[in-house]
């Protein structure tokens, strides 16, 4: 397969992860609300999945390609870039309830903020496809797909479902229609296929930087879990007994339990 075909395949994989965010809005087709307890568990689930994918997927593969200092350097760069990007956009933080009422300039700003939050997942998908078309993978639609790429695509897709739910909760309170909630949930993850294509193209051209790429994606995702997902869960759980910590831990354990078996398939 040529470069354009490979880029298209990686884009589709990234777009699948974005579509999975829309799945998070589907519970509102059947239920009017999701409890704080359930919301905390979902954030914990998402956190457990991202950390597991980072450790058992990206870091492990990175160590097979490079050295621990290279992985650590990549992780440091990933954290720094997310911190800097977040600080630049911090004063323009966006509530999902503003999606429906945004004009063009506001939508551009929203997309920029969403990019900070979801671009690392796209990069994780992209670097996992570094060996696309090479020996040792699984045949899918005529492409030889690395097992790591399948693992990361599944992991990010599962992780995106509770994110879609979290985005849909305030939209539901606004009275936004169900299908529009699905659309806005998917919209929030549109930077992922773009990030996947950019990361894949980069590591294919500069193969020697692949260990840094794995570290970058892992560092950015783990930092997002520690700086945003867990604090968000604890803020919601503040109204629950024990601050929602048991529910958060249960969600994290469940997320790890879901992903660890996939890592050894």
UniProtKB/TrEMBL annotation:
Coiled-coil region list: none
Membrane topology field: Multi-pass membrane protein
Subcellular location: Membrane
Gene Ontology molecular function terms on file: zinc ion transmembrane transporter activity
Major localization class: membrane
Parts of the chain that traverse the membrane: 6-31, 40-59, 71-89, 109-134, 140-161, 182-203, 209-226, 247-264
Protein keywords: Membrane, Transmembrane, Transmembrane helix
Pfam families: Zip (PF02535)
Entry's Gene Ontology cellular component terms: membrane
Name assigned to this protein: Zinc transporter, ZIP family
Annotated source species: Natronobacterium haloterrestre (Halobiforma haloterrestris)
Lineage per the UniProt record: Archaea, Methanobacteriati, Methanobacteriota, Stenosarchaea group, Halobacteria
């Amino acid at each position: 397969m040529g470069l354009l075909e490979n880029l298209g395949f990686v884009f589709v994989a990234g777009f699948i992860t974005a579509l999975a965010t829309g799945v998070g809005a589907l519970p509102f087709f059947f239920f009017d609300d999701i409890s704080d307890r359930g919301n905390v568990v979902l954030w914990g689930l998402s956190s457990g999945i991202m950390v597991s994918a980072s450790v058992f997927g990206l870091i492990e593969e990175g160590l097979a390609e490079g050295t621990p200092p290279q992985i650590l350097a990549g992780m440091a760069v990933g954290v720094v870039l997310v911190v800097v990007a977040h600080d630049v956009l911090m004063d323009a933080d966006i509530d999902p309830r503003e999606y429906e009422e945004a004009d063009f300039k506001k939508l551009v700003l929203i997309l920029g903020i969403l990019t900070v939050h979801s671009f690392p997942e796209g990069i994780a998908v992209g670097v996992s496809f570094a060996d696309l078309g090479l020996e040792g993978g699984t045949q899918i639609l005529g492409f030889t797909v690395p097992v790591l790429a399948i693992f990361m695509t599944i992991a990010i897709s599962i992780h995106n479902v509770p994110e879609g739910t979290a985005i849909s909760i305030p939209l539901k309170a606004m009275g936004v229609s169900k299908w529009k909630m699905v659309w806005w949930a998917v919209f929030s993850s549109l930077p992922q296929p773009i990030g996947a294509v950019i990361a894949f193209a980069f590591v294919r051209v500069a193969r020697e930087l692949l260990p840094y790429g794995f570290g970058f994606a892992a560092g950015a995702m783990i930092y997002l879990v520690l700086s945003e997902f867990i604090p968000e869960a604890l803020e919601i759980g503040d109204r629950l007994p024990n601050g929602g910590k048991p529910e958060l831990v249960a969600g994290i354990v469940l997320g790890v339990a879901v992903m660890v078996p996939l890592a050894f398939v």
